[in-house]
Design goal:
five-stranded antiparallel β-sheet, globular, alpha+beta
Length: about 70
């Protein structure tokens, strides 16, 4: 079952991303980051599969860095 929830700001200086970044949890260890309406990063079982860091706006890059800090373990 897929779960969709807002990315919280734990490591970023901002208190919130104001609903602009979401995590899609596929329930099998695969997590995707959706910034605005675009999938910009994926982590599978703690391993970073891909990210688009540097290819988007400063705000989206903040979302990607936060996502990696929270979920990348390998």
């Amino acid at each position: 079952m897929v779960h969709f929830y807002e990315l919280t700001a734990r490591y970023d200086a901002r208190q919130s991303f104001y609903g602009k970044a979401h995590v899609i949890d596929h329930g099998n260890g695969k997590l995707e980051l959706q910034s605005y309406n675009t999938i910009v990063a994926e982590i599978d079982n703690g391993r970073l599969i891909y990210d688009k860091l540097g290819e988007y706006s400063m705000t989206t890059n903040r979302h990607i860095r936060e996502f990696i800090k929270q979920f990348k373990t390998v």
